[in-house]
Write a structure and sequence with these properties.
It contains 2 helices and 8 strands. The strands form 2 sheets. A 6-stranded antiparallel β-sheet has the order 1-2-6-7-8-5, covered by helices on one side. The chain has a two-stranded antiparallel sheet with strand order 3-4. With 144 residues, the chain is an alpha+beta fold. The protein has one domain: Hotdog Thioesterase (Thiol Ester Dehydrase, Chain A, Roll), CATH 3.10.129.
Amino acid sequence: MPREIAEKKEAMQTSNDSTSSCFACGADNPRGLRLHFRLQEDVEMAADWIPDADLEGYEGIVHGGIVSTVLDEAMAKVVAALEGKALTAEMRVRFRRQVPSGQVVRIRGWIDSRNKRMINAEAELTAQDGTELAHAWGVFLRPR
């Protein structure tokens, strides 16, 4: 494998190229989630996460807005890693089960299709046993 391809692949392995103050993944945001995504099988970004109790909407249940945020971040990360800079244009979320706080969940994002400037992506949040808790579909646009 040529050196520049190997270097690009290594950089994508831990794609956290947002600003360090990013709410979802920024290492320097004291109120942020500090998610750390890794490229899996060269086709998806994934992160494990234990949501804190201060992210609850109801006792023991993570707020739906936070769930939506992490799903958007998973899609944005995979789009950035594999397609370059693009912005969320549209997003739909289906909440399948309550997301518990204090338990490990897995966040995964992948690209479904591409068409000129538009990239369709999906993400899911699953429990440790693989049960899907939430699923998202997003449309991302490359800037002109």
